[in-house]
Amino acid sequence: MTQAKKIIVVDDDVLITEAMKNMLMEIGLNVLATAESAAEARTLLESHSPDVLMLDIMMPGESGLSLLKDVREKYPDIRVLMMS
């Protein structure tokens, strides 16, 4: 049996992040943390080692697309799933 993937969920809508977290955990995946902004996600990426980043495309302030560019450069092994 393979180990559950470690996931960080990023969305500016807390209802979305909680719903995604609950659904993912219900099917046995390991949600390390949730974030409501790109800045918060950056902090989590520095302190956690996720396998997957679920990232909202449109967020106030820095967009998910902008964060995606930095994630690709700094953390090339993290898989990113963009949400809208």
Could you characterize the architecture of this molecule?
The chain has 84 residues and is α/β, with parallel strands linked by helices. It has a 4-stranded parallel sheet with strand order 2-1-3-4, sandwiched between helices. The mean pLDDT is 93. Helix 1 links the parallel strand 1 and strand 2. It starts with 5 loop residues before the first strand and ends with a strand. The radius of gyration is 12 Å and the shape is globular.
Task: Provide a concise account of the structure shown.
The protein is α/β, with parallel strands linked by helices and 84 residues long.
Top keywords for this entry?
alpha/beta, 4 strands
What does the secondary structure layout of this molecule look like, with pairings?
Blueprint: E1 6-10, H1 14-26, E2 30-35, H2 38-47, E3 52-56, H3 64-74, E4 79-83
Parallel strand pairs: 1-2, 1-3, 3-4
Number of beta strands: 4
Given as residue ranges, the uncertain stretches (5+ residues, pLDDT < 50) are none
Question: DSSP helix count?
Answer: 3
Characterize the largest beta sheet: strand count, sense, and whether it forms a barrel: 4 strands, parallel
Q: In one word, what is the shape?
A: globular
Mean pLDDT, all residues: 93
Determine the fraction of residues in helical runs and give it as a percent range: 40-55%
The value of Rg in angstroms is: 12 Å
Sheet with most strands: strand arrangement = 2-1-3-4
Terminal Cα separation, in Å?
Answer: 32 Å
Structural class determined from secondary elements: alpha/beta
Strand content: 25-35%
H and E order: EHEHEHE
